[in-house]
Specification:
mainly alpha, globular
Length: 94
């Protein structure tokens, strides 16, 4: 599990992750930060808490997870940037 400090990590996002980070720090200190906690946040549609928990458990920065999960990323493939096909492979059978 990633090292968790007492101070929330600053995140460049349209979302406010600071309250979620405090919640995750408290769960970690109580020994209750686990997969069941992440599942609970996800089922309750608590996006910030889900991302903060995944970050704490994986060591991946919150901003990175936020971009990956929300789909807000720069595509290097011009076809995908323009809404083109995702795969150049054969079409799927009906």
């Amino acid at each position: 599990m990633a090292e968790i400090s007492g101070a929330p990590e600053p995140v460049e996002s349209r979302r406010d992750f600071a309250p979620a980070q405090r919640t995750i720090i408290a769960l970690h200190r109580a020994g209750e930060l686990n997969e069941a906690a992440v599942l609970g946040f996800a089922k309750a549609h608590k996006y910030e808490e889900s991302i903060a928990a995944l970050s704490a458990m994986s060591g991946v920065k919150i901003a990175t997870l936020d971009r990956l999960v929300s789909g807000d990323r720069q595509e290097s493939d011009p076809d995908r940037r323009q809404g083109g096909p995702i795969s150049n492979g054969p079409p799927c059978a009906p």
